[in-house]
Design goal:
Strand content: 5-15%
Largest sheet: 5 strands, parallel
CATH class of the largest domain: Alpha Beta
Helix content: 40-55%
Number of strands: 9
Order of helices and strands: HEHEHHEHEHEHEHEHEHHEHH
CATH architecture of the largest domain: 3-Layer(aba) Sandwich
Oligomer: single chain
Distance between the termini: 21 Å
Bound molecules: phosphoric acid mono(formamide)ester, norvaline
Radius of gyration: 19 Å
CATH superfamily of the largest domain: Aspartate/ornithine carbamoyltransferase
CATH topology of the largest domain: Rossmann fold
Length: about 300
Amino acid sequence: MKRDFLAVTDFSKDEIYETFRIARQLKADVKNGKPHHYFANQTMSMVFAKPSLRTRVSFETGMVQFGGHALYLGPNDISIGKRESVKDIARVISRYNDWIMARLFDHEHMIEFAKYASVPVINGLTDYNHPCQIMADMLTIQEHRGTVEGQKVVFIGDGNNVCNSFLNFAAVVPYHFVLAAPEGYDPDPVTLERAKAAGLSTIEVVRDPIEAARNADVLYTDVWTSMGQEEERQKRLNDFKGFQINRELLSFAKSDALVMHCLPAHYGEEITEEVLDGPHSVVFDEAENRMHAQKAVMVMLANSSGAGINV
Ligand code: CP
Ligand code: NVA
């Protein structure tokens, strides 16, 4: 049986910690020049309905480090749902490749993709969530602060796909998640309720960024206008005024707080260049960890199907 990674909640708490352990080992291997060709001669199709820098480069490079090869299929190559149906794309690719990574608009398409694919599907972002991002982010927090549990992570801005994945993480691993968002930009209500109902984490949604930032271990943000929302950009620029991570907001957080951003950043909007380039920022560790975390997810999925990879 193949296993997919479509949401953080696909993994148990133990599996998340095992993924982090594997990621740290794979990262050390890369730094020490120790090859780990666990997926020699395997191939991955990377299906992108939206643009990408990190997701594409980290998966493609990771696949080469595993001794395999990845193929990029851009928005104009296969025209998902227009030139060809999701289920046919999934069935065809499964006949060529050992892995599928997809970045799609509609999360329902991701679920359909996984249903019809006979090889593991990894979600590289949908309008609903971005699980690979959150695995990398939490790995980064664990690296810098020793643990994720009990950390106060404050997300300033839009209750978007990245925010939904933070909530999904909170349903599995206990920590303190606070979203400061303007009215009208709350996360997916079902995801919020499910995370609260899990009863593990402290979860707050507030309107005041300063109240949220007080005593934060991590200040996190993402773009105000996500991919696919470009026509709302002007309205969002107005609505998110005051929801910026800048020197002043940072002064309310703990003195050793981390500043994080999934990137791409829009300087002068959700974050100032000064803070992103400043001493609190771990933004490029976070970007690097995308690759190590995703490779670890792949090892976890393969081992669930009996690959027996011993990292
Ligand atoms: N953070 C992230 O997913 O970046 P890309 O959109 O460049 O892949
Ligand atoms: N919320 C952003 C994340 C980009 C990695 C978007 O969906 O565009």
